[in-house]
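[audit] Reproducing an earlier prediction to check determinism. Same input, same settings, fresh worker. If the tokens differ from the archived copy the diff job will pick it up downstream; this log only records the rerun itself.
[audit] input (296 residues):
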Amino acid sequence: MYRETQVSNYVLAVLAALALVLLSLPLSAPVRAFKAAAVYLLHPAAFYGAKGEQRLAQVPPRLASLLRADLENVQLQAQLRETLWQKSELDGLRAENHRLAQALGLRTPSGHTPLWADVMERDPLHWYNSIMVTAGSDQGVTLNAPVFGDQDGTLVAIGRVAEVRPDASLVLLMTDELSSVAAYLSTSAVEGLIQGQGGPRLRMNYLPADVVLSTGDLVFTSPTSATFPGEILLGRVTAVNPHDPFLTFQSVEVRPAADAAALNHVMILLAAGPGRPAAAPAPPKAQKPPPSPEAR
């Protein structure tokens, strides 16, 4: 016990002497660097935040790079722990969503792979009808594959693949008159059919006649859609059309969430197993030759 006390006293005396020496030395660059390194080893939390860069400015470049690497390692480990928690939560939500979809009898998508492509061509005469993108059958694109765009960090539906070439595809936009997709209103949760009008606006038809509709309501793809996955933003209601007494449904005007003509990149959702060629048709069964006259 007495020996341990003596050792602790010696250590305290050495540290005190070292502190006095450091205080008495002029604040030259090597002394500042040594002080910063010693402080980091004893109390690294002081380097987190905005003042940490000021402290590292007094350290030699190689030592500063090592300290920054250690700081980044600590921060990345914290982000990794947070990401693992988010992944665990996401896996739970996916399992719950799959269970509920099966209970409701809804179609659940199998494996899908996103493929980003550049917009390479727009036809001025068909501005609201189609665009050409730089991805085709060589990349696994198939007919009727859903196509999305990025609008302020939100994935929105813009159309589907209508023609596939080896290295390019023609995307039929939602605003084309031949486009339609099952959708629902976010507030009332009633479903209808979004149809293109050949212009900058969409129309949502077949809404129940007894539902109160209002502008500003968001429109999402329905889980019952045969082409698009559910819960993808389509647009926002801009006007409620006057009710026609000869019709049993209402309709609203919808502004698309993204102007497809202003997009430079799109995302195509590929089915499971992208890049695999379509299965060749089975060869016709060989027919028996007719009996020869000699065999009759």
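[audit] rerun output stored. Observation attached for the diff report: The domain at 112-271 is CATH 2.40.10.340 (Thrombin, subunit H).
[audit] end
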